[in-house]
Amino acid sequence: MRTLVGLAVLIAVGGAALAANVDAPSVSAAWAQAWSAKDLDTIMALYAPEPVFLANSGERWSGDDEIRTNFAMGLSAFTPNLTLHSLNSAASGRLAFDSGTYDEIITAAGATAASHVRGNYLFVFQRQKDGEWKILEQTFTQFDPSKL
Fold first, then answer.
1. Which of 40, 98, 107, 119 has a beta carbon 3.0–4.6 Å from 24's, enabling a disulfide?
2. Angle at CA 60, nearest 5°, toward 55 and 61?
């Protein structure tokens, strides 16, 4: 509940400047770069302890093991090329967020044709005891392909 209240406060400040020592979009960009490189170890190093990923399918993946397993399956089946476009980010205390839109070109293993996927994303970050920002929760949504 405290995380939700903290997130509500972050959203309320909307366009407020980020705290001097956090650049949420750069953490998001590091995740996108590692995703596109299929670098699972780098991806997982960006997460806080006990992270949550809210999958586009509606599933909730909790913890490093579940997230790693699902990401590994996805990365073995597809080659992604992800670009994030940050629209709003802010920080307050130990929480920060970054939200925006994304474009992703996805090629299935063994396929020659790629698919273009677009949607929205949200990263929620938590400052760790060492001062580093890590991903606490994350989600991606997908635009209706018929409206692309």
1. 98
2. 90
Q: In angstroms, what CA-CA distances link 124 with 10, 91, 99, 137?
A: 10, 10, 9, 5
Q: For 105, which DSSP code? A: E
Sketch out the chain's domains with CATH numbers. Answer: 2-10+23-147 (3.10.450.50)
**Residue ranges of E strands in the chain:** 47-54, 60-62, 78-92, 95-108, 114-127, 133-140
pTM: 0.82
Helices (H), 37-148: 40-45, 63-77
Running along the chain, 148 residues long, what does each successive block of 10 average in pLDDT?
41 40 77 98 97 95 98 96 96 95 94 93 96 96 75
